[in-house]
Amino acid sequence: MTNKTLTIIIVLIIAAIIAVILVDFQGNKRGKKGGNPYKYEMEDFSKVDSSLIHYRETRNISLGEMNAHGFDLKDNTLYVTGEQFLMAIQPDGNQLFLESLEDTGSCLKVTEDFIYVGFEDHIGKFNRDGEMIDRWQKLNDRAVITSLAAKENRLYAADAGNRRVLIYNEDGSKLGEFAGKSESAAGHGFIVPSPCFDLVINSYGDLWVVNPGEHAIENYTDDGEMRSYWQTGSMNIEGFLGCCNPAEITVLYDGSFVTSEKGVVRIKIYDESGKLLSVVAPPSKFKEEGKAPEVVADEEGLIYALDFDRNTIRIFEKNK
């Protein structure tokens, strides 16, 4: 190939590139831009049939300047932790105590005798008045503790950074851990793409762990052997949309699940087998592309949602 021929080819290529740029530029001018046939229309998934919404918001509690990260409900008292604080308040907003912490609490679990606070890489043990009793041994540098659950003398901690659940006794001795692997069809282990990794123990004493990357909620024995699971990833309201959902869960007294999703933020209720029963709060109640509220429930079925985007605890009651 001669230099002249090579020069002609290069000039033609440059001309073609310029032509493509000019056409694209003209097409994107105001008033000339065509619709994107591949655009992901989130609005289509934000609409909820009103007949599915069985709850209404009855009141809320503003947390003011307190930057909350997690909460729990015990004996009709709300316990809240966050950026260097631990607080107890009643549902009417009356504050019982406010204690300063050296670290930022990410989650907590309240038992009959103690308050356990999950920090990023360790767990703190407090009495019910908010005074620290013990600080448990730190985990490795990858640890990100996101949820705690308690059963009798055992405490379960979800570690999103290491994609595992840790098992402790009430004095902080580690009894074991598990990563969700099983010989069943769900033998994929915990898939945790982001720090959304929740677990809960229901009124029957069953341990349930969210596998967010699989849109699954899995049941385990006390020692971490999988017993069953249900899974529902779907674009429809019956399933979980997008990545890492459900992000937060709790249980009602009858064993049904309250789930909270991020992205298209919504709170729903499923029965024990994964069938959608109702919607508590549709996306229109929350900030667009917001964080998933943390959820807890009392024995009467009231649902408390910690709305991180509003820094408010919102209380939902079933329609009569």
Can you walk me through this structure?
This protein has 320 residues and is mostly beta strands. It has two domains: 1-31; 43-318, TolB, C-terminal domain (Neuraminidase), CATH 2.120.10.30. 9% of the residues lie in helices and 40% in strands. The chain has two helices and 24 strands. The chain has helices spanning 3-27, 43-46, and strands at 55-62, 68-74, 77-82, 85-89, 95-100, 107-110, 114-118, 123-127, 132-135, 145-151, 154-159, 164-169, 174-178, 199-201, 207-211, 216-220, 226-231, 248-251, 257-261, 266-270, 276-281, 294-297, 303-307, 312-318. Strands 1-24-23-22 form a four-stranded antiparallel beta sheet, with no helix packed on it. β10 (145-151) and β11 form a beta hairpin. The chain starts with a helix and ends with a strand. Residues 17-40 have low confidence and may be disordered.
Q: Please tally the β strands and state the result.
A: 24
Strand arrangement, largest sheet? 1-24-23-22
Number of domains: 2
How would you describe the shape?
globular
Number of helices, counting only DSSP H or I runs of 4 residues or more: 2
What's the SSE pattern? HHEEEEEEEEEEEEEEEEEEEEEEEE
Query: What is the assigned CATH homologous superfamily of the largest domain?
Result: TolB, C-terminal domain
| Rg calculated over all Cα atoms | 24 Å
What would you say the CATH architecture of the largest domain is? Answer: 6 Propeller
